[in-house]
Amino acid sequence: MHSSRVLVTGAGSGIGEGIATVLAERGWQVAINDIDTTAANEVARRLGGVAVVGDIAADPAGVVDRAATLLGGLDALVNNAGIHRRAPLATVRPDQLDDVYGVNLRAVVLASQAALAHFARNPRGEAGVKGEGGVTRSAGSIVNLSSIAAVTPQMDVGLYTATKAGVSAFTQQASVEWGPLGVRVNAVAPGMTRTAMAEVVYADPVLHERRRSMVPVGRIGTPRDIGSVTAFLLSDDASYVSGQTIVVDGGFTNTLIGLLPHPDPHS
To answer: How do residues 175-188 score in pLDDT, each as one tens digit?
Structure first.
């Protein structure tokens, strides 16, 4: 595979770190963005990448531009950074709404706009130009992190569910508007994934087992699971895939109707 340059936002830990790790292992030059200086530098050092410390909500274009400068250009963007503020919709405060919207959706749009300008400078960036093996190479590729919460509402997390639905909708619209420019845009919607943020749940063996038993494939997801699907979507193997939100949940969302009370079929 050709060496490509990618920025992963919020990659100092959790799913973002898992995505960056898989991409680095597959030969990508990776820029690690995080608001946590220590985390960004440590992951970048481990992966042989570059750290781009900064608040993606406060300066999305600046983060993208610095990543492109450090990498010598940009071929892909992974909009992974995301937050939630726990609060029922009836009492969620305006500042909580602004915080979640700013990171989860506004920054995704503005970072993507900034990346688009860098993609336009790529020498293989003309739509229809053939790459190795006759594969049409894109000028650039974007993967956004949505969530199964976008279609299965998560309670008491304020605007989180709405912003993730917005990410999926933005993905569809951007794929249509930017496809003629040679840019593919897709999204990944993780299900239950074991990260440091979720460890308070999975460290409890009873809760872990109850959740694991609800997943058809029989296990909780890992950040590398999300990384592998992201890597596929960014690769030339997915050159004809755009505007899609790929659910990565072990089949969990397909089981929800089965949780409803039903008559015993054997009675």
So the answer is: 999 999 999 999 99
* Helix axis angle, 94-101 to 160-178, nearest 10°: 30
**DSSP alpha helices (H): ranges in 179-237?**
199-202, 205-212, 223-234
Report the catalytic residues. 160
In a domain, 204, yes or no: yes
Is position 75 within any domain? yes
Positive/negative CA dihedral, 51, 54, 60, 65: negative
Separation in Å, CA 169 to CA 26, 34, 119: 29, 25, 22
Residue 128 within any structural domain of the chain: yes
Task: For residue 246, give every residue at least 6 positions away whose Cβ sits within 8 Å of its Cβ, in sequence order, or none.
Answer: 186, 187, 188, 189, 229, 233
Domain count, the chain: 1
CATH, residue 161: 3.40.50.720
Domain with 61, as residue range(s), is 5-251
Tell me the C-alpha distance between 198 and 21, whole Å: 19
Positive or negative, the CA dihedral 86, 89, 94, 97 is positive
In a domain, 265, yes or no: no
Per-residue pLDDT of 87-111, as tens digits, reads 999 999 999 999 999 999 999 999 9
